[in-house]
């Protein structure tokens, strides 16, 4: 049995907590900024509802000791706000799984975790808040967590073995996998700017824009060591074209709710690293300031 703390029981955190609960082997605690009341996860295919049974803390002062595992599920730009929980929960033997977007997991999280090991994770979970204390998962889309192959990744896979809420996949080329996901995150930024769900990618002009954005993101990815050819751009834009029209993205949901946006980890990084490598990023040069402005508002 392991002591697992889930920091940030939002859409992704709730699904991660459900997976830990489903194993029936672990002690799970949820760490939130405010009391969300009862939490439940809804399967949109079966209509099944599962209540999360873990206790909910609302302050780092309530933490009684370090955890064996911390599943960090706050948005990338909220990591600093989770510093109190991370300090209280982490010791050198703790493993922190960064369930966050972007390609800078370790650099972002390591300063807060008291020398604990940081395991970056790529999150492929389609979930959204659909009511007070309620998260709905699109279970016609596989829920997958990709982590680097190696001892820590293998231990994490064993930790969640037996859970049906998510599958853990070990990835040998994590850089390539992370940049593939980052490219989809970058494309999804168009949803936040337009305030539209996946139906927007059916427009020829938006498809052309998304393709150009994917191409420049992949150019930066290759400069960062990812094995992603330019032809990958068509495939990744195709994912959005084939989505159900009402599928959204977390950055869109935050925009519609008037919350601060995770724009830097998803889109700003393309522009920043593009400049470092001398790679033009004309679409990001327009999109990033618009996302930043929308976030400020």
UniProtKB/TrEMBL annotation:
Gene3D superfamilies: N-(1-d-carboxylethyl)-l-norvaline Dehydrogenase, domain 2, NAD(P)-binding Rossmann-like Domain. The keyword Transmembrane helix does not apply. It catalyses: (R)-pantoate + NADP(+) = 2-dehydropantoate + NADPH + H(+). One of its GO terms (biological process) is pantothenate biosynthetic process. Its EC number is 1.1.1.169. Pfam families: ApbA, ApbA_C. InterPro entries: 6-PGluconate_DH-like_C_sf (IPR008927), 6PGD_dom2 (IPR013328), ApbA (IPR003710), KPA_reductase (IPR013752), KPR-Related (IPR051402), KPR_N (IPR013332), NAD(P)-bd_dom_sf (IPR036291). One of its GO terms (cellular component) is cytoplasm. Residues 4-139 form the Ketopantoate reductase N-terminal domain. Keywords: NADP, Oxidoreductase, Pantothenate biosynthesis. Residues 173-293 form the Ketopantoate reductase C-terminal domain. One of its GO terms (molecular function) is 2-dehydropantoate 2-reductase activity. Catalyzes the NADPH-dependent reduction of ketopantoate into pantoic acid. Belongs to the ketopantoate reductase family. This is 2-dehydropantoate 2-reductase.
């Amino acid at each position: 049995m392991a002591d697992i703390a889930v920091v940030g029981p939002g859409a992704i955190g709730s699904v991660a907590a459900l997976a830990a609960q489903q194993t029936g082997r672990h002690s799970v605690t949820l760490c939130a900024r405010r009391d969300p009341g009862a939490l439940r996860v809804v399967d949109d295919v079966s209509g099944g509802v599962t209540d999360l049974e873990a206790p909910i803390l609302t302050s780092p002062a309530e933490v009684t000791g370090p955890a064996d595992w911390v599943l960090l599920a706050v948005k990338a730009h909220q990591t600093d706000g989770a510093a109190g929980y991370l300090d209280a929960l982490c010791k050198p033997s703790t493993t922190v799984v960064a369930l966050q977007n972007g390609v800078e997991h370790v650099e972002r999280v390591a300063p807060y975790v008291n020398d604990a090991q940081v395991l970056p994770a790529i999150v492929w979970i389609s979930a959204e808040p659909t009511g007070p204390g309620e998260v709905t998962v699109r279970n016609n889309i596989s829920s997958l967590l990709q982590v680097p192959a190696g001892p820590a990744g293998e231990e994490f896979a064993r930790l969640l073995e037996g859970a049906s809420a998510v599958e853990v996949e070990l990835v040998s080329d994590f850089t390539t996998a992370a940049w593939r996901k980052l490219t989809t995150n970058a494309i999804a930024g168009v949803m936040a700017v337009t305030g539209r769900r996946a139906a927007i990618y059916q427009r020829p002009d938006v498809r052309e824009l998304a393709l150009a954005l994917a191409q420049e993101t992949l150019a930066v990815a290759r400069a960062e060591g990812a094995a992603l050819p330019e032809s990958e751009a068509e495939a990744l834009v195709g994912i959005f074209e084939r989505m159900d029209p009402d599928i959204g993205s977390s950055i869109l949901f935050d925009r519609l709710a008037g919350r601060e946006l995770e724009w830097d980890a998803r889109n700003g990084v393309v522009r920043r690293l593009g400049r470092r490598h001398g790679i033009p990023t004309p679409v990001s040069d327009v999109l990033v300031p618009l996302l930043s402005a929308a976030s400020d508002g």
